[in-house]
Amino acid sequence: MAGPLPDLSRCRILLSNDDGIHAPGFAALERIARSLSDDVWVCAPESEQSATSHSLTIHRPLRLRQHGERRFAVDGTPTDCVLLAINHILKDRKPDLVLSGVNAGANIGDDVTYSGTIAAAMEATLLGVRAIALSQDYDRAAGPADFAPAERWAPDVVRRAAAVEWPANTLVNVNFPAGPAESVGPVQVVRHAKHKLDDEVEMRTDPRGRQYFWIGPVRSLDDVAEDTDIAVVKSGGIAVTPLYLDLTHHGMVQSLRQALA
Fold it and tell me: Please, is 249 exposed, middle or buried when counting C-beta atoms within 10 Å of its C-beta (0-12, 13-18, 19+)?
């Protein structure tokens, strides 16, 4: 159980993401974090690492480069970044809180299993540091993501979430809806939806006559339960979901023991 952090102004905060250190959403996250504390550190991927999930680079060396005071980039995954930051850059004093994001696009439903944003928070949690993943939904057909809702509401959500005790192996996933910041809300604590967002596989031919494929999401949101992250975000609310890293289905343990005895 992790004790509450009632005063974030005294805390050390580490930032990471999966869209890369130069992403607009990461600039928004830096502004959010600096409104909470003066002790803010950055360790993010040098380039976009979306959908890398909880992958770790083990077959090549990693390069760590400094991009200013307390700002570092790694030519690796979000997991690499958090691991290097906590075990190397900040080894003398670990962060009190890790914030990951703000991702361009929601991480809801089964997207959380692919997300590098979630993975950075997972790695921090495994290393004993509480972590919050932040994502901003947007309409891709309407243009780039507008991070105004996240910037407006994230400081309060982070403060409130950090001020309570957390069970071990738990992280918090926060998703902000698209739309004007002043019309967002309310904040709802809901469960993670079990809903696969169908993936379309499109086959094309390159100029040399060779086949290649694009995997792209086809967003099918029919029959989504109202008390889930997907439903809340799509209705204009802020979805807050605690995620638990113990993947064991405890109810099945006994029946398998009997079957495999």
Answer: exposed
Answer whether residue 87 is part of any domain. yes
Burial zone of 156 (CB within 10 Å; 0-12 exposed, 13-18 middle, 19+ buried)? exposed
Q: What is the pLDDT of residues 169-228, one digit of tens each?
A: 999 999 999 999 999 989 999 998 876 655 678 899 999 999 999 887 656 666 788 899
8 forms beta bridges with none
- Let me know: does 83 contact 120? Beta carbons within 8 Å: no
Is the pTM of the predicted complex or chain greater than 0.85? yes
Structure tokens at 162: 């950090």
- DSSP, res 165: -
Q: Which domain holds residue 92?
A: 8-194+224-246
Does the residue 207 lie in any domain?
no
Tell whether 202 is covered by a domain. no
